[in-house]
Design a protein that fits this description.
The protein is of the alpha+beta class and about 500 residues long. It contains 15 helices and 11 strands. The longest helix is centred in the C-terminal third of the chain and has 25 residues, at about 475-499. The chain is elongated. The termini are far apart.
Length: about 500
Amino acid sequence: MARLHVDAFLDLVRRSGLVEKDRLVALLRELKRESGGHSITDTDFVAGRLVEAGPLTRWQVDKLLEGRHKGFFLGKYKLLGHLGTGGMSSVYLAEHVLMQRRVAIKVLPQNRVEDTSYLARFHREAQAAASLDHRNIVRAYDVDSEGNIHYLVMEYVEGRDLQQIVQKDGPLEYVVAAEYTRQAAEGLAHAHLAGLIHRDVKPANLLVTPKNVVKLLDLGLARFTDEDKASLTVAYDENVLGTADYLAPEQALDSHGVDSRADIYGLGCALYFLLTGHPPFVGGTLPQRLMMHQKQPPPDIQLDRPDAPQDLIDICLKMMAKKPGDRYQSAAETADALAKWLVAHGQTIESGSSGGISSANLTGDVSGKSSAREPIPSQRRKPAKGAEGPRRNSGEDALPPPLPTRPSSSATKEGGSHAGDKRRLPVARPLDEGSASEFVLDAEMPPLPLWKQRGTRKGGDIETYLARRKGTPKWLWLLVAGGTLLAIGLLIAAYMIAR
């Protein structure tokens, strides 16, 4: 596609509504002064300065440079960028126009809007997400639609997921791994009490904020415990849902009949990954790894970490027991076991069920910077196996297309989740960059044809654009004047005929 001239690009900026007219003119005049009054015809330079000055993001500029100017707004939210695409939606970074609060917006693909079952599932997810209010779960703020665009507004959380952290920095210190797993268990316990099973617990779905708070992502596969077999999952022939490296044995056999203890197994596999730098079973085909989860005990953690505390290994292995009855029977019980281990190893747990240990005691800064406290020599690890090469997509081994189903999970008063309870719904799919097309909004539809893009044919600079913005074009005044004279002439003619 031919490169836009400066004045044509600026016209698209104006038409997009992303920058107020007065601010745009002021910025351009300042840029003109900085250039010493010289002509500026470099579109990329002007676009870059608009990003530096703040009114536009790089993603917005890229769309405008492609000739797009529509679809940057959803209701009261302005889209700032594309975060990723999951199993049933695309997710965007956005900002509330008035409050200027940044959020994540999950948008249902337009090609699925006419699918009533798919749309129903999306709205059920929104209802469930709104019902989950917990420190360790990504929150939902709003659900709305604009035309045929349906979307869910969620908390935007900065940070890295545990898969990224381990792949970049290597296995975690023992207290850090235990604390992150404990926080994840607290979030799961809250979801289970609301009647939800996550069904895809894995390091890539555990986000760590700069303050070392773990946030549970992707309740997109969640299932209600009391949902019958005529579920949306079955309707979409999703026989197995989850990710192979973290899938409970019973979940591989029947995704629709599992209870909350399947999440405990997945969280145990995640803890194993945090301690060793790799999933419990590596190598082999996907069916072979599934069979290993069914039949084989996980390799000894001390093969990777000879000094790993045996009592922490015991907790991990109990979480990963093949039979659900041999595991911890609730996420709350799991969190309690990890909290006791942390206290026994000199950590202080903050009061409250969702409290954490002091962030000063944690290493593995999510920003990627080195921690203030160096890990002890026995815990200083090399990057995880396979971390040198390209990062494997977190959904690489996901079994048949995970079209999130908001199904099962029940909760007992004792904290278990094996009996039916309230119907609620889930929160978000993984933000796997590049896993599907991001073109779902008008801003991402085909650009304007060249003949429709305004601007001078030979191209113009900033001054050309400002000159065209100063007032009404002369040709329009001539057209109005001609029309007025014609109307007067017709009135006179009509009067003469009437006489």
